[in-house]
Amino acid sequence: MSIPDFGESLPETASPEAEFISLTHLNPSTELNPVPSRGIDLDFFKRYVATLEESGYDYTLLPYGSNSADSFVTAAAVGQLTQRIRPIVALRPNTTPPTVGAQKLATLDQLTQGRAVVHLISGGSDAEQARQGDYLPKSQRYARTSEYIDVLRRSWTEPAPFSHDGEFYRFDEFGPGFAPFDGPIPISIGGQSDEAFAVGGAKADIFSFWGEPLDDLRAEIDRVHGIARDAGRSALPRIWVTFRPITARTDELAWAKAHDYVTRIEQNFARVRPLLAGTNPQNVGSQRALAFARQKELYDRALWTRTAAVTNAAGASTALVGSPETIAAAILDYIDRGASLVSIRGYDTLADAADYGRNVLPLVRQELAHRRATGQRGRLQAEHLGNYGAEYRQFATAGQP
Question: Membrane spanning segments where (predicted)?
Answer without folding.
Answer: none
